[in-house]
Amino acid sequence: MSAGIKPAIIDPVGFIRANTRLLPVPLVPEISLHVADEAVPLWSKTEEELGEAGLPPPFWAFAWAGGQALARFVLDHREHVAGRAVLDLASGSGLVAIAAMKAGANSVIGYDIDGFARAAIAINADDNGVVVEARGMICSARPLHPMRRRSSPVIFSTNAIRRNVPTRFCPGTPHAASPC
Question: Rounded to an integer, what distance in angstroms lies between the CA atom of residue 49 and that of residue 98?
Fold first, then answer.
């Protein structure tokens, strides 16, 4: 391989399917996700196959406790999302986005900066019989048209909140000031 050229996992969907198992989510058993048995081996395999060290953990390969709690809340309190367009920021596996669709949302966009997360969102949504649009760039030329209405819920993962993403959501746009 030439210097400076990084190998790529040509088929992220195949990589995810080969390294995870489709299992029901403990607190949300009506949803199943492709999850890894352990983080470190999957993390190492991803770094090895991409030829990179220091990659972020594979957040997309686990049903984190905060996501499970939020998905359970969304399913148990459908009135917050039913009939609305929903944005799930730092979507990871797509668990909360899937829950929103199952709870009656008109549409859901699952944003995540990780390309594997976007592939996982698509696979998991399909395996749960819902459609979730996976996007990676928030501040792009592609409009957030369903999110421009103040009545549309925006869901932030616990990871996004920890990193202060809501206040950096799209600096200089009306979305930055929109309430969740």
Answer: 29
